[in-house]
Amino acid sequence: MNAYWIAFITGLTTGGLGCMVVQGGLITGSLAQQIERDLAGDGLSHPAGKSSRLVLPLVMFLTAKLVAYTLLGILLGWLGSVLSLTPTTRGILQIAIAVFMLGNALRMFNVHPIFRYFSFEPPRAVTRLIRRKSKNPGNDAFLAPVLLGALTIFIPCGITQAMMAVAIATGSPQAGALTMFFFILGTTPVFFTLVYLAMKLSSLLEKYFMRIVALALLVLGLISLNSGLNLVGSPVTVENTAQATGRLWNTVFMGSQQDALPIHESLKSDIRLEARDDGYFPSTLYAPAGDPVKLHLITNNTSSCDRDFTIPSLNVEVLLDKTGESVVDLPVQQAGYKLHFSCSMGMYTGDIVYR
Amino acid sequence: MKRKYRVPDMYCVSCPMHLEALEDELPGVRYIKASYQKLSMEVDFDETRLSEEQIIAAAREIGYHLELLPA
Known about the structure:
The structure holds two protein chains of two kinds. By secondary structure, chain A is α+β, with helices and mostly antiparallel strands. Chain A is built from ten helices and nine strands. Chain A has helices at residues 2-30, 32-40, 47-82, 87-108, 124-135, 143-151, 158-170, 173-200, 203-231, 238-254; strands at 270-276, 279-281, 284-287, 293-299, 308-311, 316-319, 324-330, 338-343, 349-354. Chain A is elongated and about 80 Å long. Chain B has three helices and four strands, in the order E-H-H-E-E-H-E. Chain B is an alpha+beta fold. Chain B starts with a strand and ends with a strand. In chain B, strands 2-3-1-4 form a four-stranded antiparallel beta sheet. At the A-B interface, helix 1, helix 5 and helix 9 of A face helix 1 of B.
């Protein structure tokens, strides 16, 4: 059940911001009339009523979105049971998503006009329909936000797309639905707050506000890019660079050779890796070159997502039990080869070094 | 009558929507197509009911400067 907590927290921390980029504009655009009236103060007497004009449609929008995405989750989970998404493919998807996020951040910072293309332009017919419905609601007062909320499944933001990939990877309609449900639920408070604030602020303040969102998006995009690179086994990641820098520091300034094993210790062809709640231990393993190696993956009451263990370059993916041991047979490698492993999201990483 | 404008002030994805909303507010407009990606706006209107100056003024009122592009 921990995966759903992660989905929820991802939504809470990052999803709201990402969705704001693509969908925030849409919902504020459709509620433009209400916003203008609210800012102008049209003299309606009930004080609660003024705010509720904005709050109610927003709540309806978010509810419709939650329902629509949960249904989508069912579809995605089912799709996952039919297809198979390898770690490498997922990594590529994540990199593509990161590029989209970074492009969007640079667009919001007005770095270069070309970044304007990193945005979804909702189809004109849809916005026109919604705009007209919201102006002449009649009995359809609730239709516009609900319709809009449901339509957001066609314009998922970067992080939502990443979650959709996770939903596919669950391979079960139920798990897929729950993953999407908890993620969107997590995005709801942030999304609601941001959009509500953006609607209340004057357009000048809104620009500064957008810059903060853009900055957060930049950071998130870089993190996402790093995760994606980890998943495809790239040597150019923050973790690998940090490790390499650390070793360089030790070698140059401390005169030590961290990589050298004590001479009396021979390399075994059975190696142990523990998947703990805070990552893999040890993060660097040593294995004998020229021999087939058995990798024993140990868990002991582990609830972290590093139970979803992958070796992207070998297309290996094992979902470990909460407590137990799984064995992976590794093919023969040459001396000096570094086999990169990571969790399925590219967050916890490590290497098996062959000697 | 069709006119195409460059709109350099569009800074976000929802900007075109504000311009397209003028479709419903100005009389005699057949359609308005605005694009954030291309920073452009295209209007098709009945020149007997609406003048170009009125369109430009309406856009300025909601914060956008229209620069006429050659046909």
